[in-house]
Amino acid sequence: MPRSLFLISGGVKPEEINIGEWIKAGAECVGMGSALFTSELMNAEDWDGISELCSCSFKAIAREKALQ
């Protein structure tokens, strides 16, 4: 399916290596839910922690996309 774009949402972790592997494998973008909004962070109302995971994930995606 050469004209298809893929959004990966299962098995994606907010880690540079994991995100990079998905992008290298051809994912156009990745989606995360419970990996970013963990029950621990949500129960602790650790909004800064959640923001940090999101920020690191965006940076990892941008770095990998810049290499393509």
Report the average pLDDT across residues.
93
- Widest sheet, order of strands: 1-2
The best one-word shape is elongated
Which stretches of 5+ consecutive residues score pLDDT under 50? Answer: none
Straight-line N-to-C gap? 20 Å
Instruction: Estimate the helix proportion, in percent.
Output: 40-55%
Work out the number of β strands. Answer: 2
CA radius of gyration: 13 Å
Order of helices and strands: EHEHH
Structural class: mainly alpha
Helix count? 3
Number of domains: 1
User: Quick one: biggest sheet?
Assistant: 2 strands, parallel
What is this entry, summarized?
This protein has 3 helices and 2 strands; from the N terminus they run βαβαα.
What can you see in these coordinates?
The protein is mainly α and 68 residues long. The chain has one domain (7-66). 50% of the residues lie in helices and 6% in strands. It contains 3 helices and 2 strands; from the N terminus they run E-H-E-H-H. The protein has helices spanning 16-24, 39-43, 47-66, and strands spanning 7-8, 29-30. The chain has a two-stranded parallel ribbon. Helix 1 links the parallel strand 1 and strand 2. Helix 1 (16-24) runs parallel beside helix 3. The chain is elongated. The model has no long low-confidence stretch (mean pLDDT 93).
